[in-house]
Write a structure and sequence with these properties.
The chain is an alpha/beta fold. It is built from 16 helices and 14 strands. Strand 3 and strand 4 form a beta hairpin.
């Protein structure tokens, strides 16, 4: 008879976001980890997503997706307005619970919503170890989103709701308390960004903290597919123009409006610049109106199409300061594309160390405008592209390597 340590560890990963072709980086991350797990004899992996209908998608004998219809989706809350990623606000999900009782290890990727709450209850009832990984600075994002929503929907009550009652800060404090409680229940907590590791270190002992890397698909993301003339023709970009790409949700959460303000400023000053905005969200109309022929909103792009732009443009712009890793920045670097990034972003420390782009230390349109001016002067600097490639090669593994080296040992140890 095989010993427990010789059997594949049965892991259920919970991603309380909608699974769709146009899902964001959090969902895509776990799709790629799932693909990397195919054929791995050490793990049986089930990734749970939210979705409009119940379904099971069996990728291979050892990897599957389970899609669960939400008990109470944020889609049912009309006053929220634009929500970048819908989630389940219920306190318990019975359908999910039936799957989790079969797990050797339950891996949560948030600490706040229906999937995480269900995991806490099932783990306690059935003595199943919990593992948690941090993918978004949800505390900071909740404060930012709450403030934005209140200003848009109830702007006339701003002196009361925001200034006096400080509702955004209260929401953030509640999220912080939930994160602390959840992490204390976990046998391991995985983080990618130093700030998230410091937060987790207040909740768990140092020996329960693990560094998590995300991967790169180097068959798709590579510098050799670059073609600047083709890019210029496609978007009608004149010669000697600084070509930028932004990838992600076009909303407040990604700090896109600071970038728009900065671009508008440098365009008024005569800087030749063009923005390719790949994503969907309410800022698309703002970009088209304010930047006019200096920008193109191209919507959601498949990885291959993104890779071609990465390998052909001058810089990626990453203004978000709540990114824990930034999968799109890593993929851009693998194509030799330097990155202009907020210093607080998870990829910022790498860019600064390797001189593979520009770090913006201050979250202001003036600081970003100055960075864009420096980028224009450096747009033909081959050393930046070489540094980007070197950084991607040194710091970012393949998805399979990240799975085997960072995740599987944690899951096996949690089972033991």
């Amino acid at each position: 008879m095989l010993k427990m340590s010789q059997l594949p560890v049965n892991v259920h990963v919970l991603v309380d976001l909608e699974w769709s072709a146009q899902a964001g980086g959090h969902v895509k991350c776990w799709e790629r980890f799932a693909k990397a797990a195919i054929g791995n004899e050490d793990v049986n992996l089930t990734v749970h997503f939210s979705g409009k209908t119940e379904q099971r998608k069996q990728l291979t004998s050892n990897v599957a997706y389970e899609i669960h219809k939400p008990v109470f989706s944020t889609r049912r809350i009309p006053f929220l307005g634009h929500v970048p990623d819908h989630t389940d606000m219920a306190s318990f999900h019975p359908g999910l619970a039936q799957h989790l009782i079969k797990a050797d290890v339950i891996h949560t990727t948030d600490a706040f919503f229906a999937f995480a709450k269900t995991a806490e209850r099932i783990a306690a009832q059935h003595n199943i170890p919990l593992v948690h990984s941090v993918h978004t600075d949800s505390v900071a994002y909740s404060e930012l989103f709450t403030r934005s929503m209140l200003e848009q929907k109830f702007g006339f009550l701003k002196p009361v709701l925001i200034d006096a009652l400080q509702i955004p800060q209260q929401v953030a404090a509640d999220m912080r308390a939930k994160l602390e409680k959840h992490q204390r229940l976990c046998v391991k907590v995985l983080t990618s960004r130093e700030e998230d590791r410091r937060v987790a270190a207040q909740n768990v002992m140092a020996d329960r903290l693990v560094h998590l890397r995300l991967g790169i698909d180097r068959e798709v993301f590579k510098a050799s597919i670059g073609a600047r003339e083709k890019l210029n023709q496609r978007f009608s970009i004149p010669a000697d123009v600084l070509a930028l790409i932004f990838v992600g949700r076009l909303d407040e959460g990604k700090n896109i409006y600071v970038l728009i303000d900065a671009l508008e400023k440098v365009i008024r000053e005569g800087l030749p610049v063009f923005l390719i905005a790949a994503g969907v969200g309410p800022a698309a109309s703002v970009i088209e109106k304010r930047l006019n022929h200096h920008a193109a909103c191209v919507g959601f792009l498949q990885p291959g199409a993104l890779a071609e732009i990465y390998a052909s443009a001058d810089f990626m712009a990453l203004p978000s300061h709540v990114e824990t890793w930034s999968m799109v920045a890593a993929e851009a670097l693998a194509c030799g594309l330097p990155v202009i990034a907020a210093a607080q972003s998870g990829v910022g420390r790498f860019i600064g160390d390797k001189h593979a782009g520009e770090l913006v230390m201050e979250n202001s349109s003036d600081a970003w405008a100055d960075a864009l001016k420096r980028a224009y002067l450096l747009r033909n600097d081959r050393t930046l592209r070489d540094s980007a490639l070197q950084l991607a090669a040194e710091k970012f593994p393949s998805w399979k390597q990240a799975l085997v080296e960072d995740l599987v040992p944690v899951w096996q140890g949690a089972r033991r």
